[in-house]
Each structure stands twice: as structure tokens, then as C-alpha cells.
Specification:
The chain has 258 residues and is α+β, with helices and mostly antiparallel strands. 36% of the residues lie in helices and 22% in strands. The protein contains ten helices and twelve strands. Strand 4 and strand 5 form a beta hairpin. Helix 9 crosses helix 10.
Length: 258
């Protein structure tokens, strides 16, 4: 139970307080206050109002404040459509009104709807302690640096985000972000491993043309993953549905590219 809270005047002060007091960051609170997370901090550093929450379209891409709520991201017409769609997949509007973009990345949950999309889009984070990191490097490296902004470059090709979920009250069985361009492919998956992961060998075969059909993509993905069972689905089902959804996403990207 949180017994002490600190309200710093700047991101730099927030970092200093967290390190000095052994506290956790508290933005929207959807992770810190979520019982299954296993977190039970005694001290918290409040980030509300401390981080930027704007969406800025630039010539070479976008910059988005880490403090933006996911609902505000959904409602921002200037934000990338693929990212808005990923944020909208969180079924509860009350959660979207609380959860922040930076917090969603920092939580580093394998069932995140946003992380596969951000990785597929080549997103980077600006942090106080570590400077600029790719989102992929941030989550695979187990970083806990304070995120202030998210950068998204203009990307080539077509990008698809999707998910499989049994009901609006259930955790997802799969989350995915797939992008295919000339000479490039990204396949980022959630729920198939402890962290959101990329299928790099499959990506290389998509780029080389070795996987020309939906069936060959299905088989390559099926042979590349070993997901755990979920609360209400078997590992075999997860493996099958993941391969099916990725194969369809790759086909959709190819069709969008023309």
C-alpha cells in the first residue's frame, strides 16, 4: 500500500526522488494499482502534469508526449492511424482515460496492445537518464528510465495491428504489429513470450521472397514460436491462431502496398 507520495517539480527531480527513496513512478496508476501486477509499493513519485502530453506532426515523423492518455491518443487526428487503432483496442474507456503512453511502454507487459505497434513503426523513446532508445531496446533491455517523449519516424510500406481476445473482459490471447515494405519487414508479437518479441528469421524470409504465400508464412510462424497456455486457451491454440493472424497480416500489408 502506498503510504508516501512525492510531487517533483521536474522530470530530473522525479528521477532523483525515485532513486533516493526507492519509490515507483505513478502516472495513470493502471499498472501500479492493478492487483495482478504484484506491485505493492510504499512510496510513489507522482508524474501527473509533469510530462508532456502533446502530439506534434513533423516533417520526418511524429513526437508524442509520454504523459498523453491513451484515450487522448485515440482522439488525436494528427497521430498515426495505426497507433490510434492499437490504443483503441483496450476495451475499457475508463482505463484509456487513465493509462498513459509512457506508462504503457514502461510497464513492459507482454499482452500490451501498443508495444507491437510501436515496434513495427520503429518508435523511439526519449528518456531522462539514458537519452534516446528504440522501444524495442527499452523493453528487451529491461530499462526503467523515465520516458518523456515517444518519437515515430515516417515509415515505408504498410502496417497492420490486430489482436485476438475472447471477450472485452478477458486478457488478449495475441497482440501483433506487422509492417512490410520493400526490403524490410517487422513482425512484433505479444502474448507468445515473456516479453513482446520479434520473429527476425521469419522477417528475413518475408523480405527475401522465400515466403510467398499465406500458407508458407503460416508454417514459418508456426514453427518459430512456442507460446504458453493462457487461462482459457491451450498452447496449441495460441500457436495456431498466432500463425494464422500473422499470415493474414503479412498478406494485408502486401495488398496495401499494391
Amino acid at each position: 500500500m502506498i503510504e508516501e507520495v512525492y510531487r517533483p517539480a521536474s522530470p530530473d527531480e522525479a528521477v532523483a526522488v525515485k532513486e533516493r527513496e526507492g519509490a515507483v513512478y505513478l502516472a495513470g496508476g493502471t499498472q501500479v494499482n492493478w492487483a495482478p501486477s504484484g506491485m505493492n509499493p510504499a512510496k510513489a513519485v507522482l508524474l501527473a502534469g509533469l510530462l508532456p502530453n502533446d502530439v506534434t506532426r513533423r516533417e520526418n515523423g511524429w513526437e508524442i508526449g509520454a504523459g498523453i492518455t491513451l484515450q487522448d491518443l485515440v482522439d488525436a487526428p494528427e497521430a498515426p492511424a495505426v497507433l490510434r487503432r492499437a490504443a483503441s483496442m483496450i476495451p475499457a474507456r475508463c482505463v484509456r482515460n487513465m493509462a498513459t503512453l509512457g506508462g504503457n511502454i514502461a510497464a513492459n507487459r507482454t499482452d500490451s496492445y501498443l508495444l507491437p505497434a510501436l515496434i513495427a513503426l520503429g518508435a523511439e523513446v526519449e528518456t531522462v537518464e539514458r537519452g534516446v532508445l528504440s522501444v524495442e531496446a527499452y523493453i528487451t533491455g529491461g530499462e526503467d528510465a523515465l520516458i518523456t517523449r515517444v518519437r515515430l519516424p515516417k515509415t515505408r510500406g504498410a502496417c497492420v495491428v490486430d489482436r485476438v481476445v475472447r471477450s472485452s473482459a478477458a486478457l488478449p490471447t495475441l497482440t501483433l504489429g506487422v509492417r512490410v515494405a520493400e526490403g524490410e519487414a517487422v513482425i512484433a508479437l505479444g502474448c507468445v513470450a515473456p516479453k513482446v518479441t520479434r520473429l527476425r528469421e521469419v522477417e528475413a524470409r518475408v523480405v527475401s521472397g522465400a515466403l510467398e504465400t499465406e500458407t508458407t508464412v503460416f508454417r514459418a510462424v508456426f514453427d518459430s514460436i512456442d507460446p504458453p497456455a493462457g487461462l482459457k486457451e491451450s498452447a496449441a491454440y495460441r500457436r495456431y491462431i498466432t500463425a494464422t493472424m500473422v499470415a493474414r497480416a503479412v498478406t494485408a500489408c502486401r495488398k496495401q502496398r499494391g
